[in-house]
Amino acid sequence: MERIRIIDSKDHVGEIVQIGGWIANKRSSGKIAFLQLRDGSAFFQGVVVKTEVPEEVFNTAKGLSQETSVIVTGEIREDSRSKFGYEIGIQNIEVVGESNDYPITPKEHGTDFLMDNRHLWLRSSRQHAIMQIRNEIIRATYEFYNSRGFTKIDPPILTSSAPEGTTELFSTDYFGQDAYLSQTGQLYAEAAAMAFGKVFSFGPTFRAEKSKTRRHLTEFWMIEPEMAFVKHEESLQVQEQYVAFLVQSVLDNCDYALDVLGRDKELLKIYTELPFPRISYDDAIKLLNENDFDDITWGDDFGSPHETFIANHFSKPVFITNYPKGIKPFYMPSPEDRDDVVICADLIAPEGYGEIIGGSERAIGYDNMKQRLEENNLSLDEYGWYLDLNKYGPVPHSGFGLGLERAVTWISGIEHIREASPFPRMLHRIYP
Ligand code: 4AD
């Protein structure tokens, strides 16, 4: 007899099959038991009818507790009443492993309790849906860059330098030398772009951010493309095509997960329409000031209410371009006609989800870069290799970083970034 996965039920209608899974929930009367089964691929219903199975099978079904693992045998049938569309008419149940007093019951639980039980919470249908969307975004990322001739490179995670600012670093001891967990792979991606033309990195990054918000993790995954001979304008086009591709891929391949989460798919479709609107930092400040935001003036970074207002104004992902030099890192160049701003953009997601991409053109020129490093108190010993890139055939280049969990949170339409990571790391949270 064939062992199948629930997700493949549509190919086995009318067949007797086996499924290995767990009891997510159960309802039973004297005559019939409905088992909510999950096997990791999907959730569906198993039906055990007293008059159709041996007595001990019905008794086993009635006695199953939440999260008992089982192998069930039965016939796959269409089930037009359920969203999933299929069920199994169970003929036999083999109990594989017992489960007693499972802590997460179908009733409501507080967030702290669920986070303490994250290793179990992951089993719920909601978490399953979110992780399916995360997985699709990862898959689509590889498809997007591989099909466009990018080479994936893996920057180191242990580094001796801190390009995005020293206050948010996790440090460790590296055989007697200070080392840091990487905040970004960008500088290494730049070196690799000079070797391979178009590259992307995709790996974990770490920031010791003390902010306890619904958008911040201390460990998150970042996708960082870097492109040689590419100026800012072309980079913005890659960014919007990439983000639209992610949304379209989730719409195409995660329909069920989006339904489980109650995500508005019509809204998501709007986010695949290009181009995305753009507004300069200067105009964004004007827009805010004209709309009664008195708490921000030119030179300040945006807070979350500001980003939300700007995004709502456009109802689509929006690029905010040319931020003041003072609030951006050392590697961003200024345009020829102004030295108070830099050639960069952040992409702000709609619906209050905040920044999902930060990117820029990169400064080049040996003397220029040396001066920038010195002005930012970055040691020429540590950054000698990076400075080298300006010695041997420097070219204009641009790149950006998309935060995976921010993208997952937004596209899934969930409230908080903690659910976008299987085992989130946040301020005061490193268990489980
Ligand atoms: O804007 P950021 O800091 O840019 C960089 O690190 C550049 N070096 C990227 C590059 O040009 N290669 O971060 C990029 C993105 C943000 O837009 C956000 O999506 C995500 O990383 N991010 C976070 N996600 C979750 N938790 C945090 N604490 C994050 N900080 C940044």
UniProtKB/TrEMBL annotation:
EC number per UniProt: 6.1.1.22
Keywords assigned by UniProt, alphabetized: Aminoacyl-tRNA synthetase, ATP-binding, Cytoplasm, Ligase, Nucleotide-binding, Protein biosynthesis
Keyword check for Ligase: yes
One Pfam family in the UniProt entry: tRNA_anti-codon
GO molecular function: asparagine-tRNA ligase activity; ATP binding; catalytic activity, acting on a protein; nucleic acid binding; transferase activity
Gene Ontology CC: cytoplasm
Ligase is among the record's keywords: yes
Record-stated family: Belongs to the class-II aminoacyl-tRNA synthetase family.
Official protein name in the record: Asparagine--tRNA ligase
Species of provenance: Vagococcus xieshaowenii
Source organism phylogeny: Bacteria, Bacillati, Bacillota, Bacilli, Lactobacillales
This protein's encoding gene: asnS
